[in-house]
Amino acid sequence: MSTQWPGGILSKTAPTITAPTDGEGGSASGMWTMDEVLVHEKAGNWPKILLQGELWTWGYNSQGQLGKGDTTSYSSPIQVGGLATWVKVSAGYESTYSTKSDGTLWSIGRNNDGQLGHGNTTALSSPVQVGSLTTWGKISAGGHSIYNVKTDGALWVCGKNNVGQLGTGNTTDYSSPVQVGSLTNWLSVSGGYRHCLAIKTDGTLWSWGEGADGRLGDGGTTDRNSPVQIGSLTTWSKVAAGNVFSTAIKTDGTLWTWGDGNDGCTGHGNTTDLSSPVQVGSLTTWSKSTAGTLNMIMLKTDGTIWGVGKNEDHGQLGQGDANNYSSPVQVGGLTTWTDVVSGAEMTFARKNDGTFWTWGRNWNGGLGVGNTTNYSSPVQLGSLTTWVKLPVHLCNARSGAGIKTS
């Protein structure tokens, strides 16, 4: 069995590789299994195609988080500046963060807790570079915080820290980026509203911040202001921190959740809170899970999208109704989805033809379809087929963003 990937074919015969020198190059020929790909990704020698393009935003704009130099909300996508060198974007509560292909980090929007990283608490309605470094890598916006794994594997944070969500060993807010410890073996990070999850290059899973409802997964409900390991397994692959619950995928393709079970958002057929990771069903075909407010949206390896949790009022699960679901349900019958991300009661998804789709709550035009109507089934955002990236994470965000080619 093999799978098409932008850099080649994945199957059971290991390829010949040429490792990159900067984490974004390299080459490969032959075939790999998906597990082998994960091993090489962790080692930093799996070649990556650095997709870049224009940054577009839409929706609620009370703090200038759309980057247009004003505080006017827009119900259709607007371009931020004229550059086409943006590679990642992540949105928190009324703030937006982006990185460019040169490794610089930029931020806009709400800044009352110093979450923009500029050493002050001044809101910004146009993007401003955070410092002068060119080594920013994987970003994830929390509720009022920002998390970033640099290219050297160090984890840096700033913003609100009242329950230890920055992981710095205290509850002090920081308006400029500070490093979490001294380790350089962080692989990925996901910021929730008041807690954070991260995976190290050895496949271990870590959490910190608010422990209510068991969302840290360490078996209790105590707040942690420093990273604590969840169990002892070394097979964790992807994580997503929501408002009050958490989700992760292992290298074997299994899906796990824990935290607040209200409205069935953890996918176990009930509304029970969980303080340790519990597997959702028995399937091994999950490729991505994203955590919203009290809902979770997932992607399978066959290109299907699934949702679970809260759906009433806004239709954020894409089922065409307003029913809550405590077990995963498929969104339509298509097998052409390549990416998905869930935010504050809204969902964004991308198909393999480069089209952008949205559904759920449309407060202040957050869905980007030119109106403020809620949609309980997927609706296409415009007619373009040049969207290359969705936001990395949407933590309690009421606005949307995406990167597309011209």
Helix content: under 10%
Q: State the low-pLDDT regions, or none.
A: 1-14, 17-27
- Between the first and last Cα atoms, what is the distance in angstroms? 35 Å
Could you tell me the mean pLDDT?
A: 91
Helix/strand-derived category reads mainly beta
Overview of the molecule:
The chain is an all-beta fold. It has 2 domains: 1-49, no CATH class; 53-404, 7 Propeller (Methylamine Dehydrogenase, Chain H), CATH 2.130.10. It is built from 1 helix and 33 strands. It has one helix at 34-43, and strands at residues 3-5, 8-10, 16-18, 27-29, 31-32, 54-59, 74-79, 86-92, 95-100, 105-109, 124-129, 136-141, 145-150, 155-159, 174-179, 186-191, 195-200, 205-209, 224-229, 236-241, 245-250, 255-259, 274-279, 286-291, 295-300, 305-309, 325-330, 337-342, 346-351, 356-360, 375-380, 387-389, 399-404. A 4-stranded antiparallel β-sheet has the order 7-6-33-32, with no helix packed on it. The radius of gyration is 19 Å and the shape is globular. Residues 1-14 and 17-27 have low confidence and may be disordered.
